[in-house]
Amino acid sequence: MTFENVRWNEIWEATKDTLAMMAWSLLFTVILGLILGVILFLTSRRQLLEQPVVYMILSFVVNVLRSVPFVILMITIMPLTKIITGTTLGVEGSIPPLVVAATPFFARLVETSLREVDRGVIEAAQAMGASKWDIVRRVLLLEARPGLLAAVTITAVTLVSYTAMSGVIGGGGLGDLALRYGYQRFQTDVMLVTVVLLIVLVQLLQSAGDLLVRRYSRK
Amino acid sequence: MIFQHFNLLSMATVKDNVAFPLRLTKLSKDEINNRVSELLQLVGLTEHANKYPAQLSGGQKQRVGIARALANNPDVLLCDEATSALDPQTTNAILALLLDINRKLGITILLITHEMHVIRSICDRVAVIDQGGIVEMGKVLDVFLKPQHRVTQDFVEQVADSFDARELIGQREGRLYRVHYVGDTTYEPILYNAVKTTRVQFAILQGTVSRMKQTPYGQLIVELIGDGPEIERVIGDLRKEGLDVEELR
């Protein structure tokens, strides 16, 4: 194979786009998903703010968003994307759909991690007079830290594969490149390079995540 | 409050676990640090300040729990089955620490347990709870020596390794008595003194001589063999010495 079709400066630009899309959407996803996940956890049965109706509604919305295939979701929320970023194209245009798709996913992972926190520790904090906010901040988020870091890693990897799909609506990045050159023009060499870069990216993310989880595990 | 399963933050160091209740108050960083080192000193964990709970033994974890519970100077220390997850040696070490804290700091300790020797070794007063209600309450010595309620009797029998002395009635020719004594009389030869001027003989069928907290006590089932009037005199002498004598029928 000669890689005659590969224009490296374009590959470099696409890689930067993919990284930018992933980093920004990961940032917003983690902020929003953490809040949503904590609310899901707290309002669920036998927890600090038990609210069956609130939990049911939130849970339903999360399930709906998670059921819609990303490609469909991306197209459906285009009007919303336009309002938020002013465009539905490029890196900016793909961040809202990425966040909307990844937030419910991450929120569920957060909820699950928080469930793993020993109830006894929460009880002890209550016995010491900790407020609910203190318990969230000083107990739940601290005790669930390894689980939360693992959840961020999984979400980051998921976002990489989502960014590749956003190529379909002109989102840019490596996926877009693979689609336009590799698929539509049968340039297998471009396809190969982009796929290899995506594999490397995922490996790096996973290793970094594992390292962080190990660094913060105390059990 | 301290717990059976310690309930420490697994992601925080010993120091941070003890600082947890202090950080909920308005104390400054320096004040918190000083109080934490003071508490760690008290429970003997100064050199483990930067370890995580997973690196500690059960007894050490419970010491962290105790330090944390004392941080905000409580009036009462609640111990919920605090020694039930510990081995016997560690249990004794923790009990010694609790007793020490009780004396040094003058804190009332309310201890929930099903381990009778825990009550015998450090408690002053005891209440027996059955089906969610208090069925018996009083000084440890009184409750252990003369349990009134069925549940209390069951508990006390577990430690006294006593069998039901009433089984002996009718099998023996003499008269059976249960004798209790507490305090200094425990180590006096009272029984011998009471019978030596009579022709009454005695046999000890069952007995315990031990201590509760610091108080020595004894509880014997004795058989007295002899004439009725002479036995009455012996009983009278024993009672005069402050012993509690009760005939078993």
UniProtKB/TrEMBL annotation, chain A:
Membrane topology category: Multi-pass membrane protein
Q: Name one Pfam family in it.
A: BPD_transp_1
Q: Which GO terms describe its cellular component?
A: plasma membrane
Its principal location? membrane
Q: Which UniProt keywords apply?
A: Cell membrane, Membrane, Transmembrane, Transmembrane helix, Transport
Q: CDD domains, from UniProt?
A: TM_PBP2 (cd06261)
Which InterPro entries does this entry report, sorted A to Z?
Answer: AA_ABC_Transporter_Permease, MetI-like, MetI-like_sf
Question: Which biological process annotations from GO are given for this protein?
Answer: D-methionine transmembrane transport
What stretches pass through the bilayer?
A: 20-42, 54-77, 147-170, 190-213
Domain (ABC transmembrane type-1): residue spans on this chain: 15-206
What does the UniProt entry say about where the protein is found? Cell membrane
What top-level branch of life does the organism fall under?
Bacteria
SUPFAM superfamilies found in the cross-reference section:
MetI-like
Family, according to the entry, reads as follows: Belongs to the binding-protein-dependent transport system permease family. CysTW subfamily.
Q: Which PANTHER family match?
A: ABC TRANSPORTER PERMEASE, D-METHIONINE TRANSPORT SYSTEM PERMEASE PROTEIN METI-RELATED
What name goes with this protein?
D-methionine ABC transporter
